[in-house]
Amino acid sequence: RTSITQESLRSVAQVEGLSLEELRLRGCKELTHYSVEVLCKHQPGLQILDLSACTELTNLSVGAIATYLPGLVVLRLGWCKEITDWGLLDMVEPTKESEPNKEMVREGWVGKSYDHAPLTEGASLLALRSLQDLDLSACSKLTDSSITQVLCYPDLQRLSLSMLPEISDDSLASVAYHCHSLTSLELSHCPHISDQGITRAAPYLARLQHLYLSCCNCVTAVNLCSHRSLSMLVQHCKRLRTLDISMCKHISLTTVELLQSQLPFIENVHCRFVGGADLTLLL
């Protein structure tokens, strides 16, 4: 995967009569925006695109995807750490993103027969109205500024925002309100997600089946009956089958037991090291 060349990818993308519906390029660390743009232009029928851990991708890559792949159903951009709010919002930073010439020369774009002029400004991620599965985990430069404005997909079923250290309860509440078809939501290692966010979001997540909150230490509960946030999960998210609250140091084992008894469809409650258990005991 990591050895795939830019030239070979561009050549495959432009094969006459080739119409791809699914493409997985996870971990292709040399893949850059210019090849992604050609790929998107020549394969507009793509429905599944996995570019996870393609670490050279930038905001311009998001613009190309949103512009040329309106029918995309699954998009995975996890660990693409150069993607920022500007890319999701269709507001490219001129000082950072509009100097492709050196890289174009290095990759042999200049003088080629491809439509190689880079996008100066792509479409917002909002253009992908058919999305059902979106992974933005570990895109650590993303903040509430883009998440609250762009993630408005009424048909979205699976969303991962894990390891986004800058997002807060505002993102969680906005996602819940605008993406009310969610069945799976991953928020692990988001340190600013708290009880308040869960309380605000739960009434809109009636379809939720899988919720991941590991290492969210601002989610607290010593007693479920007296704690509003997890009580809201019991009240509104009755379809929950999986709940991960591992390493949430302010949640007690008593609360875990109550959750298991009051959620009718619960199958898996991951609760390792809740209540501030000492991880060094394993050493």
From TrEMBL:
Transmembrane segments: none
Protein name: F-box and leucine rich repeat protein
A Pfam family: LRR_6
Source taxon at top rank: Eukaryota
Cellular component, GO, one term: cytoplasm
